[in-house]
Write a structure and sequence with these properties.
By secondary structure, this protein is mainly beta. The chain has 2 helices and 17 strands. Strand 8 and strand 9 (115-116) form a beta hairpin.
Length: 216
Amino acid sequence: MTKKLQEFWQNNKLFFLFISLMLVFRSAVADWNEVPTGSMKPTIVEGDRIFVNKMAYDLRVPFTHISLVKIADPARSDIIIFDSVASDKKLVKRVIGIPGDVISMTNNVLTINGQTLSYQPTKADVKLSSQKENLLGNIHSINTKKEGSSLSSFSQVTVPDNQFLVLGDNRDNSADSRVIGFVPRAEIVGQAKNVIVSLNYENYYLPRSERFFQAL
């Protein structure tokens, strides 16, 4: 049996080495994640596979959250991926508040450090409104429900040290900091910058070629 195992190892060691290096790469350098929900619509839609730069903020020990070298901190408007202890899920959301920010929201209009953000309507239907949100110089699209929801407003809060306030771009349909609280810096594992590929769940999983390699 030992001889057979040795032969098996000799015949397959390059394959196992490749798999090991690939796992280390995906754990510590870069990865791709499927997005199963619409909490980030219209920026990210169900079926998108997004590229995750795991070295955007830290160089970490593979397969852990232990940071060896801090590279940068998340900035406002960054789309981050984090392992949420509060929700017991890996989530993707947009950074709205960084440590020290004072933030409130009234009827889906954000105020940050005393400055009320501006919004430019882009599209509307019976239930949803799409708008361009100017997040202190960073412009991106969001969706809101015309009638609002219980998530549409929150009282003034101050973002603590080493924590971040995050929201989904689909503002009335996102379990984000309004539900799970602030996101600790240590839970953040990377930054999403691009869609790699996208499959249409509602149309036989056919590829959405227009979304391939789209910047977020």
